[in-house]
Give the backbone structure.
Amino acid sequence: MTREPSAGRRKQPALAAFLCAIAVACVSLSTAALGEQPDDILSRASVLRDPDIPSLGNPQGDLTIVEFIDYQCPYCKKIVPELAQLAKEDGNIRLVLKDWPIFGDVSVDAAKLVLASKYQNKYAEANAALMSATAKLTEANIHDLLAAAGVDVAAATADLQTHQKSIEALLARNTAQAEAFEFEGTPGFIVGTFRVPGVVEMKVFKQIVADARARAKKRKS
């Protein structure tokens, strides 16, 4: 789990609902009773189904996995193929990637351009291009990587200017949520209503998915 040492970001208080700890294959998690008020930044709708973030995997999936990411986070990059394989094998996972750019200005620029690429329906391609990059990101190679992935960078830059306020508001929401959940860095996950504060082995992650589904089923009954 990675966080920029110089970020200097003060954590907000944890959600009051994060009171009960459970053990899943030796990994301690907290149960999250997400709020129900639609205008609450920490509501179930805002955390799991923010309309400004395109979903990956199965958009109609019965379970949402939220991952807080930074395009310069090595652990985020490492888990990409494992998460993709899990989503493919499962077939019913809705994956939501929330940009939390904590590695400085380049990370912020990368996040904004990827989010702007959704206006030309290239969000998935833009995300994959930067997550698979092995070189240190710079303004120049971000543009090159996106262009190689089929993104019209000039159009994305124009869309970023047009939608700057909404994109910056989205990043602010992501940051507020990540800090309220007391994530120390990226990646951090919300699996259904379970908080997973970092990378775990995939067999453990699969158990968390199963437990999250069981909890959702129990909640509906």
Summary: Confidence is low (pLDDT under 50) at residues 4-33.
